[in-house]
Amino acid sequence: MITRFLTDVRVKFNPFSKRAKPARLFLSLIPPNARVDGMKIETKMLPRTSKEPATLDVKFKDGKEMKLELEKMRITEVMEEVDRHSRVLARKEELTGN
C-alpha cells in the first residue's frame, strides 16, 4: 500500500466486531515511522455493545478526502481505493520532477 501521500487517517471501529477486520488490517499496514514523517493518525475504539459501523477517513497531500464505510468492504477493496488515488499523485509527482 502506498502511504507516502497520506496526511491524515481517522479510523473508528469496534475492536470486538467481526466486521472490524478491515480497520485493524489497514492500521497494521501503516508503517511504524508514519507519525514521524508527518501523518496524523487518529483511532477511536467503540464500546463492545456499539452498533455503529466501522469507518475510515483518509486525507491526501493534495487535499482530497476519502470516506469509506468498512462494514461493507474487504481489506483488498480498501487498499485498491487508497492506492488508486496514491498512484495518481505519484504520476503527477513523477511528471513534475519532484
From TrEMBL:
Any Pfam family the entry gives = MRP_L53
Q: Belongs to which family?
A: Belongs to the mitochondrion-specific ribosomal protein mL53 family.
Please state where this protein is localized. Mitochondrion
* Annotated keywords: Mitochondrion, Ribonucleoprotein, Ribosomal protein
Q: Which GO terms describe its cellular component?
A: mitochondrial large ribosomal subunit
**Gene Ontology terms for molecular function:** structural constituent of ribosome
Tell me the organism: Bimuria novae-zelandiae CBS 107.79
Q: Which domain of life is it from?
A: Eukaryota
Task: Please classify the protein's predominant subcellular localization into one broad category.
Answer: mitochondrion
Q: What is this protein called?
A: Large ribosomal subunit protein mL53
